Amino acid sequence: MTTAHFYPIGTPGQPWGDAERAQWRAAQQRQRSYHDDVVAALERLGERFEVVQYGQLDYAPDHYPLFAVVNQDWDATLPTALVTGGVHGYETSGVHGALQFLDENAEAYAGRINLIVAPCVSPWGYERIQRWNPDAIDPNRSFRGGGLIEEARALMQWVVTRGDTLLVHLDLHETTDSDLHEFDPARCARDGKVLVPDIIPDGFYVIGNSEDPQPAFQRALIAAVEKVTHIAPADANGELIGMPLQSKGVVWGESRSIGACAGFTDARFATTTEVYPDSPRTTPQECNDAQVAAVCAGLDFALAQR
Length: 306
Prior knowledge:
Layout: H1 18-26, H2 34-45, E1 49-59, E2 62-71, E3 80-85, H3 92-104, E4 114-118, H4 123-128, H5 150-162, E5 166-174, H6 177-191, E6 205-209, H7 215-225, E7 239-240, E8 243-247, E9 250-253, E10 269-275, H8 284-304
Parallel strand pairs: 3-4, 3-5, 5-10, 6-9
Antiparallel strand pairs: 1-2, 2-4, 6-10, 7-8, 8-9
Helix pairs in contact: 2-3, 3-8, 7-8
């Protein structure tokens, strides 16, 4: 794993101002296409699902329509599940895992549960393989107070306006080596704090909401995913990313109070999934498959509890 380093923007110990944020933003270059990778995939799904534009990001000169997919023949008497991906745009399998679930698995749940899938919440970050939005704000700390940035606000307001009662919310993420050598150093530089390097777990794990962790639900996801890819072991302190291990591959962390996407709904069964795409023991396709396995296991568990 890559060693953390001092971030080259800003002055150590001093939070960024407008000039530093502008310098950081200017350094972010488009590396892939949201339209080609996500919008085109949604267009292909349009005959099988309802594709809804729930908002738009306007970061001149770039403009990004925000899309969600819902099942046809919506049945208000059924429970509803929300799947979100790409809240952190650089976490690739969250986006492609959500799209793969739609293409290969979603129709099998017809007549049992309604589905809402927002596969790429942060398309600016997706294109630049970046954690933040253009203002150096973390979308996964912004799902509170009605939404602190447009990526969060648009989705939150649309979901609230729909008025669905959610049973399940699965938010699909990755933990990567770039967290250690790029994003954590950038965050500490931005906030004027000292970097304390963390250990990146090698494998899949989930973060349950500590306010209502639903441990049996979290364990069901791990049991399904370990048939697809390896589960992250605890570190020498019995922790994953600084949180105590509750059971194999399961930690509990704050969601609602910190503005994480997985905490903005009242879904009884909610979690944040995490895969490690930089492991020599996995592949990009295996990471996508792990995300899909987690989604299916979450839906199956929730349906069995009704």
